[in-house]
Amino acid sequence: MYEIFQKYLDEKAELTQAESERIQSFAISKKLRKRQYLLQEGDIWKYDAFITQGCVRTYTVDEKGSEHVNSFSIENWWTGDRESLMLQQPSRFNIDAIEDTELILFTHENFELLCREIPAFNNMVNAILQRSFIAAQNRIQASLTLTAEEKYLNFINKYPGFASRIPQTMIASYLGMTPETLSRIRKQTAKK
Amino acid sequence: MYEIFQKYLDEKAELTQAESERIQSFAISKKLRKRQYLLQEGDIWKYDAFITQGCVRTYTVDEKGSEHVNSFSIENWWTGDRESLMLQQPSRFNIDAIEDTELILFTHENFELLCREIPAFNNMVNAILQRSFIAAQNRIQASLTLTAEEKYLNFINKYPGFASRIPQTMIASYLGMTPETLSRIRKQTAKK
DNA sequence: GTAAAAACTTGATATAGATCAAGAGTTTGA
DNA sequence: TCAAACTCTTGATCTATATCAAGTTTTTAC
């Protein structure tokens, strides 16, 4: 399980043997069964979390009890609530497992220590953050400019493979539409 | 004009005199008249840009010719297209001045050099990126969960002062609604 | 293996917000 | 300083998507 993270590190950063071992020394393994929570609304998030296997979703629940999916994260991605982590305030989000999931956690103190100690690690982390920001910008742009159908086509184009492992209800929520609308769109586009 | 940026730096990072001077040595001043472009779609963005005075908007134009405002940036904020900068690809965005505007530019090579040379500067830049990412997440969340009226109230609450200096048409576009809808919302909420 | 729960589909109807249109204010620049 | 060009408002109508409802299929858990 740790090998998956090690492989990711080797691809993304040039690390010495000693640095790799230093990183591994702080890694905490965690397993989640399907539907199990990684974070619940109101808790303060304290980790940097990397997924080695499986899939989680980050979502909020509004006053009416409806869920709004903010993001999906699968193996080789990071997850967590950066706002709660950075400001040390109770999270507005829930994160739970869509499939049985395996993660590597670092407490944020340890993670920051690694960033300070290992420049290559720090650079990697910054590059990831840049890409996350760009992805968020693109999502905003899509939500402003695309129709429901275009949003769906854009999604399956950008994240092929997701559609088959994530329930449609959740994808609909992520795209900002109802499950019924997504169902109808899928029927239409299948025809073409 | 540079003093505004210097003050910003002093607040956000602990810099030695020498470091401050090093940063200043790379700064390029730029003025934009209202409606003048900082970046046009198709160009590759090559700077890190800080606004010392004024206001710019970042937007796309779709096939029908409609503009979609992605963001506003005012004095003491940064602007630019991070995707174009990072991937060195033609930008999908336009950036132009809503008011006469003054900026400090750094070519990205110089900016990266400063990040490498000055750890405190690098940390500041990362902190800004983190905050930008959190803001983007919050905007996505708002677009998924709020009604048109709630989006507007959320906007004026979060950015008081913006409403008075930015034309309503542009605010409507930023919020993902038509100017007519925003006009009606303003009329309604004024009553209450 | 099977009953209960969850996920998906389909149809009928409702609605928030878009579009179209036209008039009133406001800003801009020669 | 005044005409042209924006910007905002208001009304009438339209439409994409939501909501409600009921049936079917798939998954889950004992």
Automatic annotation (TrEMBL), chains A, B:
* Signal peptide limits: none
UniProt cross-references to Pfam families, sorted A to Z? cNMP_binding
Q: Which residues form the Cyclic nucleotide-binding domain?
A: 30-116
Q: What is this protein called?
A: cAMP-binding domain of CRP or a regulatory subunit of cAMP-dependent protein kinases
What organism, scientifically named, is this protein from?
A: Flavobacterium anhuiense
